[in-house]
Specification:
mainly beta; 8-stranded antiparallel sheet; rod-shaped
Amino acid sequence: MTIKFPIKYNPAGLILLVVLLVVQLVWQASAQAVTVQVSAEFTPSRNNPNNRTFTNTSNVSGVCSGAHKDLCRSLGVFSINMRSSVTDSGTKMGDGVRGYGRGSLYFGLPGPRTITVTSDTGETATVIFRIVGAAFRIHAEDTPMPVSDVRSYRGCREAFGNAEYQTNIMRIMLADNGGSSQSACAFEMLGDGLYSFSARDLVYEIETPEPLNMKNGIYRGVSSYSVGGMGHDFDYGDGVNIVDPSLNIEFALTVNHMFALEFPPGSDTAVLQPLGGWSQWTDYKKVPATLRKDQHFTVSGSTNFSVNLSCEFPMPDGRCGISNGVSTVPLDVAITMPGFLGRIGMGFMEAVDYPLTASPIDVPRFSPKEGAVFQRRSYLRFEVNDEPIKEMVTHPGTQYKGRVTVIFDADM
């Protein structure tokens, strides 16, 4: 008995890529805005197949890009430099009042943002962006800074500070609430005089979507922040003058899934045989309980996909049939793919002897249990079982055959 089945599949590749891109600073005299792009990436890797999260691949700027990158890495944070196109990015007029007022070195930070990113084909996902801290370098223009200025603060903690206080201070501060809501912090005082910012950085975390649930494409979105004094997203207190009062953060998430099947030569024909050979039938006329053929293949994937059947001889219950032209008997088809879960509706089960039928509606879908699967040995099982075999042996000298098309359709 011979069963011929062409196997169709959609080769692809899963490389989920979040784009919090290379930092570019764009200054327009009319708009007075700084624009930056941020990037992160999900790439299936044989060295880390269980990974199912994005990796931030941005060209980090600001405090986390140089001497302090190990500190930032240990804290799991990144930074963006909000430097304008001019030497000094803003000025601050201190009021010299001891305490933690708005006339001191004051930093109000925005709460988290949920940004919708949309692909070219209309697919959407969300990114959560949290400002978890700030860093700055400020210079005294005409009034030295008292040493006590840097010793007390509230609403945040100091992650790093330099030792120069009189004319030039640099600090990395992190919000106590981890960026879960708006926060503010201030140093004890800033002298009665003019100071200039030569660097202002935001320190951030990004929460990216589940990469396995996204289809291929480039997902884009943007979030805009105002920068200045009271009422701005980034609030530097009173007496502040920021050169570029707007910050645009552009997000681009690039998703490029991996999915590949490899079948050995000759896999387009399956010859069903009894498990122990034909001798029990030829010698003793004992009807076999099962006629079977396992067709082996390898699968690699990091995305969801469906598997459906198309039958030359469809049976009423959704199974395919094989026929000798006089009678038609049902064929059981099942798939085994270690490392994958199969589901129909709300049910999940291991993809081990997972039954397949021809269905226009209830098509089983499969997902990698972890981030990605590489060249996993799998097989399709074709069987005729029990009573249909008794029907077949009543037609000696005939050949039962039928075409079964196995359709793998990945979410690409």
